[in-house]
């Protein structure tokens, strides 16, 4: 089937005002031996927390400085008694970096000032860890697993693993907001479509940091217009609130958005290794800003069209988590700056792979899950700016992509091998997004990759007595993501001065 035919047929299928099957009408999956899974998950999560605490206490120069959080905190402190803000004119924090988030986010940190910087570090750490667990819980719910001891055990076990993924580790180290925003977006999209407040979380996240606004487009393309309207209303509510409480900062921000965003490049080069976005790769490859801009726009347009069509089609087929992960990946690929710690969408992606591994009889998925972890994991390494082991630098949780020279324009002199290693997050994201999107749009529905459900009734179910999964289902009925009848639980800046870490 030609590329043109695939796009045309997909657009015809999606561009209709026909009502979609509501998402979140039934939860029909459960885990066999749920209580046993819980007995594994609890000590695994506690062990992870213990190890992380021990590493943090023994490497305080790395783990407890929270350079990004110092930017937010100092920016909030820039308020004088008359409420005049200089948020977008000065640099803040330990490394003197610009504050580039909307005024609404600045106001949130103003309200947290009474905690002091020490208290804010504890608040951000605890809230980020809770957010990781919430994302794991919601992700399993979006795959159709009912609330049960087994699902809690799966969430805790997943939590114990994903904390050691490099984007997660560095989000905790920098004191970044990525995990909290991920939790807000995912918990919102995990709500059944019938909930009137669905979409508000997406709008609030977009008001805090503009990138999540892509999920509003996703809601429109999946014909959840009420949720899209709620998201837009929530976003503009944050903008209006910012104008009320921080009028000067809002005027400066919304009338100079491009210039403010560009301040990052004046402090931290877009071409540094830590920027795993399409624009970052092109900047490292092409020494011409105009050419980079044109090529970047063309590539972004192509991958956004392909990815959003595939995500919408996956959602309409009942694979909500798959669709959401694709859109999350797009937000990372097309953003001008996606530091490695922005890639926290690896958490729901890992849950999706783990689900395939546990429910499939194919060893392929176990290898894929293990390979995914190895690739994105935080490995304790003493790596200097040349990508070489150096006993003089502290032990830091680096990913494999850091094994190449970085900073001080070293990226522009990479050889072919270093190019692929140094752009590995981005290249892996592009390949996976394009391949999965193409398979979805070709209407193969990933049939050859679908698992056979092998779960047994969970004696530890929290709500009701679950039915055996797949007991009466025809062969091949299981899906990659959640089924259309499944219900979930209802309920930035890089390492040059950023990516290098300490002593790099």
Automatic annotation (TrEMBL):
Please report the record's description of how this protein sits within the membrane: Multi-pass membrane protein
Q: What protein family is recorded?
A: Belongs to the glycosyltransferase 87 family.
Determine the domain of life of the protein's source. Answer: Bacteria
State a single Pfam family of this protein: GT87
**TM spans, by residue?**
36-55, 122-143, 149-165, 196-220, 227-246, 291-309, 321-337, 343-359, 364-381, 416-441
Listed InterPro entries: GT87
| Region Disordered, residue ranges | 456-504
Q: What is this protein called?
A: Glycosyltransferase 87 family protein
Q: For this UniProt entry, what is the primary localization, expressed as one broad class?
A: membrane
Q: Which organism is this entry from?
A: Streptodolium elevatio
Q: Where in the cell is it found?
A: Cell membrane
Please list the residue ranges that the record marks as compositionally biased, kind Low complexity. Answer: 466-488
Keywords assigned: Cell membrane, Membrane, Transferase, Transmembrane, Transmembrane helix
